[in-house]
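All the exercises in this workshop are built on plain-text protein records. An example says more than a description, so a record of this kind follows:
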Amino acid sequence: MPDLERIYYATFPTIRVQTPSSSIATIRPHIDGIYGLQAGSLNIWLPLTEVEEVSALWVESSVGSTNFCPITRPTRFDGRRRVHFTIPNRSRMTRVSLDFRVVPGGGFDPASRLAQMGYFSAASLVRADHGGAEGADCRWVKTMSGHISELHGLPHTGKPTRH
């Protein structure tokens, strides 16, 4: 059974700004597995502006498929194994989005390359016991602080380094 009371997440989300363009795409086709993202991780993509098909993130519909779907709303997907990319933003508006990676607790591998580099922070679900009362309060508490990656944090100056 998966551990749903602990989650590991990228310490700093990636901020993406895609200005209108007829020729420049900001993300080439790739899978995050080439960057050492561990099995069981999920990509979370959160657009902060309105997104149309012509300014969308494109994601493989299933692993190994040649079918790609435009994503225009917040979503989660297996970016470690599914190809994803952007096309030139042919809309009239700049697209701004956040993306980050999460690993549910039971799937986290502390020996993975990114874990060893301090890429992840962690949070645990804490339940407040009210003496058996219905509707116990739950909240997420940060339990581990990772390092901001030079690759994903600002100002995007290089590759992650060991701290």
User: Anything to note?
Assistant: The two ends are 33 Å apart (CA to CA). The helical segments are 113-116.
